[in-house]
Specification:
alpha/beta, four-stranded mixed beta sheet
Length: 489
């Protein structure tokens, strides 16, 4: 018995000694944040203000990454599950000599990687390497200055204790856990099985607030005769209720300034004004004074809207009758003033180029304008995406070459949207879901594929739940279940 105790004591002392050696070679929490600054700069949601789809993906992925980093710093935390993350990474500024090679048409690229490291240094290096960012600055921090390859091979090497140590102490073998996790790919059934209880608990807790949100939204919509009330970002239920309470107080204090909102949609977002789609934007960080000024300026916004519609019509006439549209779900969130300037600049360029489009030859086709692209493209839904800097001759050739394909895509769009709605309704009914929806970054084709495969499964876990089709697995703070559209079975 005493021999056994001495052996355990020796193992514990060896463990303490090795940990003290390793700690001198690892990052602190502050060091990790400093080391990840280039990464945060490349993916921070604030830099994606004009790209709501990509912004939402980065927001959700950052939340999960921060949780992973926090767990790494918890003393004695042993249960690490591989975490798959997707980020949209901003590219470097385009090189004037060769835009195609250094800068994508959208200005960012999608990067997916899986974290299964067990210390901060290896995690930081994995993140930077996955995003093709430099790791040289990590060596200047308070860590061993050996090359990355040597550091990774040493620091990331698990301590191989004798198997009797884990049997005697009851601790789990981290090496065995990691190997198991890497062998087993996350499946829909296994993930739902692991996370159903947590989601149900959060959902039940949020139910009173959800009812309060619906009540507030209904009362304000009726009182102000609004078309709708929306949110640009995926704020929690409590946050949304707070925003509606704030609007309700303004209605009580200054009812006269809201007389011009009838028939409009109010969108809570990051800034105040009127959107390119004609919606009233209320910045969530603004005070009532800023909101009041927006409501007072509505008559001026309506005048600018008329000028904008006239400008769209003039562009359409110059381009053979093609319709200029603004698609809120796909385009950057622009104010009315920003969108007018974009249209005006594009119109002046077209007018000076005098392109030989036959009148009404492109009638029935659609196009959107974007200021952050460099090459024209054709969307799966049939509309052209035209950069404001596009060369007129290139624009003319591209539209003529893709016109027939665009018409075919427009026809498929109608069929696809009908199919998507039918599948959502069928899935909602089959699984007794309270709600089934998708993130803006999930296309209709992806949603259709996801729903078709869901309908082939038996999923009692989903009864009464809120299911969001996304690009990754997650349980939101109010109990919504997020699953990737391309989930595995």
């Amino acid at each position: 018995m005493f021999c056994c105790l001495r052996a355990v004591r020796r193992l514990c002392l060896e463990k303490i000694l090795l940990q003290s050696i390793l700690q001198s070679r690892t990052l602190s929490g502050a060091d990790a944040i400093n080391a990840l600054r280039p990464f945060y700069f490349a993916v921070h949601p604030d830099f994606f203000g004009q790209h709501p789809k990509e912004r939402e993906v980065n927001e959700n992925s950052l939340k999960r990454l921060n949780g992973y980093l926090e767990n790494l710093q918890k003393p004695g935390f042993r249960s690490f599950k591989p975490t798959q993350l997707t980020f949209y990474v901003r590219e470097r500024e385009p090189n004037s000599s060769n835009v195609q090679e250094s800068f994508s048409a959208s200005g960012f690229r999608a990067v997916s990687f899986t974290l299964h490291t067990r210390d901060l240094l290896s995690t930081v290096l994995d993140i930077l390497n996955s995003c093709s960012l430099s790791t040289e600055h990590v060596q200047s921090l308070n860590v061993n200055s050996q090359p990355h390859k040597e550091a990774k091979s040493t620091v990331n090497r698990p301590i191989k204790w004798d198997k009797t140590y884990y049997s005697f102490t009851g601790f789990k073998d981290p090496e065995e856990e990691l190997e198991q996790a890497q062998r087993v790919e996350t499946t829909l059934i296994s993930w739902l099985d692991d996370n159903e209880a947590s989601a149900v608990k959060k959902l039940k807790k949020s139910l009173p607030l959800r009812k309060e949100l619906e009540r507030l939204k209904f009362e304000l919509s009726c009182q102000l005769q609004l078309s709708d009330i929306r949110w640009q970002r995926s704020w929690g239920i409590a946050h949304r209720c707070s925003q509606l309470h704030s609007l309700g107080r303004l209605v009580q204090q200054r009812p006269e300034v809201l007389k011009n909102v009838k028939g409009h949609t109010v969108v809570f977002t990051d800034r105040s004004g009127m959107s390119a789609a004609g919606h009233i934007m209320l910045g969530t960080m603004d005070v009532h004074h800023h909101w009041t000024k927006i409501f007072e300026r509505l008559p001026n916004y309506y005048k600018l809207q008329k000028r904008l519609l006239f400008l769209e019509d003039r562009i359409s006439q110059l381009l053979g009758g093609i319709q200029v549209i603004y698609i809120e779900e796909l385009q950057p969130l622009l104010t009315l003033e920003e969108y007018y300037e974009t249209l005006d600049s594009f119109y002046n360029k077209l007018r000076d180029s005098r392109l030989p489009f036959h009148p009404r030859s492109l009638r029935g086709l659609q196009m959107i304008l974007e200021s952050d692209r460099y090459a024209p493209s054709l969307h799966e839904f049939g509309h052209f995406t035209i950069p404001t800097v596009c060369d007129p001759a290139t624009l003319q050739w591209f539209i003529f070459a893709k016109a027939q394909e665009a018409r075919e895509n427009l026809k498929r769009k109608e069929e696809m949207m009908i199919t998507e709605k039918e599948l959502i309704d069928t899935s909602t009914e089959k699984f007794s879901l309270d709600r089934l929806y998708k993130e803006p970054s999930v296309s209709s084709a992806q949603m259709i594929d996801c729903c078709k495969r869901l309908l082939e499964e038996s999923l009692p876990y989903l009864q009464g739940m809120h299911l969001c089709i996304s690009h990754f697995y997650s349980v939101l703070q109010d109990g919504d279940l997020c699953i990737p559209w391309n989930w595995k079975n």
